[in-house]
Amino acid sequence: MDIPEDRRYTDQHEWALLEASGVRLGITDYAQEALGEVVFVRLPEVGRRVAAGDTIADIDSTKSVAEVYAPMDGIVDAINEALPANTQWVNDDPYGKGWFALIAPDDPGAIENLLDAAAYRALTGQ
């Protein structure tokens, strides 16, 4: 299982990557593996204000339905518009093409409150 060192993680299996344009987020390799084949994704609306822990996306898979939660407070600045038509990206490339949204965080430093790769590895037993 892949757990890149360059991002932070939540205990709900989302990843967050601080970039110049905001915080890009998606679900982890661990999460996509547990879900099985992703068949539907509902993304948030651009411009929506979110608080840490808010549901911002929904995923349907062959095994279950899951929610994606905002890792921090901010405004949804962009979404991966191609993702709903290419749901296999969530399984094939969860840290790349399978991203969900870009959030303009109220406090970019809040990313430090999330788990680092070592802590996420310990959480998942990897």
Explain what you see.
With 126 residues, the chain is of the alpha+beta class. The chain has helices at residues 29-35, 88-92, 117-124, and strands at residues 8-9, 14-19, 22-27, 38-42, 49-50, 55-61, 65-69, 74-79, 101-105. Strands 1-2-3-9-8-5 form a 6-stranded antiparallel sheet. It has a 3-stranded antiparallel sheet with strand order 4-6-7. The radius of gyration is 13 Å and the shape is globular. Helix content is 16%, strand content 35%. 39% of the residues are buried. The mean pLDDT is 96. The protein has one domain: RNA polymerase II/Efflux pump adaptor protein, barrel-sandwich hybrid domain (OB fold (Dihydrolipoamide Acetyltransferase, E2P), Beta Barrel), CATH 2.40.50.
Overall outline:
globular
Distance, first to last CA:
8 Å
Q: Tally the beta strands.
A: 9
CATH H-tier superfamily: RNA polymerase II/Efflux pump adaptor protein, barrel-sandwich hybrid domain
Question: Strand portion, in percent?
Answer: 25-35%
CATH class: Mainly Beta
Please trace the helix and strand order, writing H or E for each element.
EEEHEEEEEHEH
Mean pLDDT, all residues? 96
Give the low-confidence spans: none
Give helix % range: 10-25%
CATH fold title = OB fold (Dihydrolipoamide Acetyltransferase, E2P)
**Rg over alpha carbons:** 13 Å
Number of helices: 3
Structural class per helix/strand content? alpha+beta
Q: Indicate the CATH architecture.
A: Beta Barrel
* Number of spatially distinct domains: 1
The largest pleated sheet is described as: 6 strands, antiparallel
Q: Going across the major beta sheet, what is the strand order?
A: 1-2-3-9-8-5
